[in-house]
Amino acid sequence: MAARAQQISAHLNWPKGMLQGQVAIITGSGQGIGAECARLFANEGAWVVVSDIDKDKSQQVADSINQSGGKATSVPGDILDDNYINSLVKKAAEFGNGKIHIIVNNAGFTWDGVIHKMTDKQWDTIIALHGTAPFKLIRAAAPYFRVKDGEPRSIVNISSTSGVHGNAGQANYALAKAGVVGLTKAIAKEWGPTFGVRANTVAFGHIQTRLTAAKEEGAFVTTPDGQKVALGIPQKQKDASASYADIPLRRPGSATEAASAVMAVCSPLFSYVSGQTLMVTGGRNM
C-alpha cells in the first residue's frame, strides 16, 4: 500500500503536463467534443490516438495536434466493426511503444423515435454504438490495462442526462447511456483493486454540438448500410426552450467545457476518484 501511495504521489508532479507521455484512445474525436478532448489531452502531454469514422476529419485533428507541437496519430474506422476495434488497439499500442493508458469512449450519435414507433434498427444500432462497442474496445485493450507497471490507467465512458434521468423520444439512447454507468462501475470494481485502473462516467447535459443544433441545419450521419440519420433538435423545440430555464447557468455548455471535464477526470487531480458519474450539465437535473 505504501509503495502504491508513493507511485500516486509521483504522478501528482506534472512539470510537463498532467498527462505527459500517456497514450490515449479517444473515439469519435474527428469533431465536436471528441476533437476538443484530443486537443486538450495533447496540450497536457498525452500521445493521442484520434479515432473516428470520418477519415478526413480524423486526419485533420491529428495533423493539427502535430503541427502545434503535440503528438497524435489518426486511426480511422467504424467502431461497430470488430476488426476495426482490434486494429485500433493494436495500432494504439504500437504508437505508444507497447502501452495504452487512457480510453475515452465518446463516439456516438442519436437516432430518436417515440417508443411505439421505434424500429428494431434504431434500437439495435444505438445500443450497439453506445453500449456494446465501448465494452468491446475495453475488452480488447484489457492486456494494456491489467498491468502492474506503476503507471496510471483511466477509462472514461461518456453518458448523458438521458441515461441518468431518461428522455422522451430516446428510449434506445437512454438505455445505452444508462448501461455505460453500470459498465463503468463494474470496471472500477474489477480492475481497481489489483491494477489500480480508474473508471468513471461523464454525463453531459445540453452541450453545443451537432446533436443539439437545429435539425433544419441538415447535419446527418450515415449508417454502415447507407441510411442517413438526421441529427439535431427541431427548431421549434429549440425556440420553446431558448431561455434554458431548466439550467441554473442559463446557457448550454461548449464543446471545450465538456472536453475539459473529461480531461480533468483522467488527470492526477482525480487520482482518488473512481466508479463515479460526473454530471456536466450547468446544474440541470440537480
From TrEMBL:
Signal peptide: none annotated. Its EC number is 1.1.1.100. Pfam families: adh_short, adh_short_C2. Gene3D superfamilies: NAD(P)-binding Rossmann-like Domain. It is an enzyme of class 1 (oxidoreductase). It catalyses: a (3R)-hydroxyacyl-[ACP] + NADP(+) = a 3-oxoacyl-[ACP] + NADPH + H(+). PANTHER family: 3-OXOACYL-(ACYL-CARRIER-PROTEIN) REDUCTASE, 3-OXOACYL-[ACYL-CARRIER-PROTEIN] REDUCTASE FABG. GO terms for molecular function: 3-oxoacyl-[acyl-carrier-protein] reductase (NADPH) activity. Keywords: NADP. This is 3-oxoacyl-[acyl-carrier-protein] reductase. It comes from the Eukaryota. Belongs to the short-chain dehydrogenases/reductases (SDR) family.
